[in-house]
Amino acid sequence: MCRLSGTKSKKEMIRVVRTPEGEVVIDDTGRKAGRGVYLCRRLSCLEKAYKEHRLERSLKTDVAAEIYEKLRHALL
Q: What Pfam families is this protein classified in (predicted)?
């Protein structure tokens, strides 16, 4: 999600996954099965992703407001 490609490792980012069952979850381990996207650990990245529906487009499903709140708390 962050346009700083090549500057951050996966471990420095937050992974969000759409599981095979269709549930959207934050993947703390980086190993959950499913379609995943990475979000940098800056509040500005999260706000841009929310405003532009980037998670929804990348995961090809709706993302509940609860997930955005959990991401916000993880960044603070």
A: YlxR
The pTM score is 0.85
Is 5 part of a structural domain of the chain?
no
Q: Please state, in angstroms and as integers, the Cα–Cα distance from residue 19 to each residue in 24, 39, 75, following that order.
A: 6, 17, 22
Nearest CA-CA partner of 42 in 12, 18, 62, 69: 12
Task: Please report, for the domain that includes residue 15, its CATH number.
Answer: 3.30.1230.10
Domain residue limits at 60:
10-75
pLDDT tens-digit series, residues 37-63: 999 999 999 999 999 999 999 999 999
Summarised one tens digit per residue, pLDDT across range 16-39 is: 999 999 999 999 998 999 999 999
